[in-house]
Design a protein that fits this description.
Mean pLDDT: 90
Low-confidence stretches: none
Structural class: alpha+beta
Shape: flat
Largest sheet: 4 strands, antiparallel
Number of strands: 7
Oligomer: single chain
Strand order of the largest sheet: 3-6-1-7
CATH class of the largest domain: Alpha Beta
Number of helices: 6
Distance between the termini: 73 Å
CATH superfamily of the largest domain: Ribosomal protein L16/L10
Strand content: 15-25%
Number of domains: 2
Length: about 240
């Protein structure tokens, strides 16, 4: 108990000094997640991919056209997490070179706790040839020689996955660093984040009060927009470039 003189002094110096706030109470901490069902494979790190695909010795490496359709539009197949945990998803189309594979592999290898985590690729190694002519050459003379190989990526494609006995906060920094250094737009996600985004997109589509959507405008040729649109805009209604 404070003495009367001390209480009077405190009330003069600071009127609210005698107001006692309770800071103790019943605390509730949720139990940790159970990871007993997760099995760590023998190989925890990302495997190293070849820079050049291996062809039979009697086969000349074939050349190929640009085929930009390989990285346009949404990914129809590999757009969900197999491990139902964490990964990197592409939000735009692009091409991955061998340097990008090595960057992701080394970043994951430095920050991965192999005792309780593992990572897997969800994309194939570089397979599409890209030709290039030497500097200063004249036009003509046929198609140039193969310069390097790439892997085309569509929007929504899962690049890699990280699983194991870990939380999303533990692997978020690692996945974010890899996603920022890729040659196309990508982001680090978890299974819960992907479910929330899908639910939010569905809700916005169902509760949209503006009937003049991009799909409605293109279908009705409003403003004569057909002469300024490509076949890809008619197919995806301006959602994918």
């Amino acid at each position: 108990m404070l003495s009367k003189r001390l209480c009077f002094t405190l009330s003069l110096l600071r009127p609210d000094a005698l107001q006692v706030t309770s800071v103790s109470g019943l605390k509730y901490f949720p139990p940790p997640k159970n990871y007993d069902h997760i099995e760590i494979p023998e190989r925890q790190r990302l495997r190293m991919y070849d820079k050049v695909p291996q062809y039979p010795p009697n086969l000349k490496p074939p050349k190929m056209q640009k085929r930009l359709r390989y990285m346009r539009g949404p990914e129809p197949l590999h757009n969900t997490l197999q491990l139902k945990q964490y990964g990197i998803v592409a939000t735009g189309g692009g091409r991955m070179k061998h340097e990008h594979f090595e960057m992701a592999r080394l970043q994951v290898a430095r920050r991965l706790d192999q005792k309780r985590m593992f990572a897997i690729w969800r994309i194939e190694p570089p397979w599409q040839p890209v030709t290039k002519k030497g500097q200063g050459q004249r036009m003509g003379g046929g198609k140039g020689a193969i310069d390097h190989y790439v892997t085309p990526i569509k929007a929504g494609r899962i690049i890699l996955e990280v699983g194991g006995k870990c939380e999303y906060a533990e692997v978020h920094t690692m996945l974010r660093i890899v996603a920022e250094r890729l040659p196309f737009k990508a982001e680090a996600v978890s299974e819960e984040i992907m479910e929330q985004k899908a639910a939010q997109e569905k809700w916005e589509e169902e509760n949209n009060q503006n009937k003049y959507t991009m799909k409605y405008i293109i279908q009705n040729n409003m403003g004569g927009c057909h002469k300024m649109l490509s076949p890809f805009d008619h197919r995806w209604c301006g959602k994918y470039l």
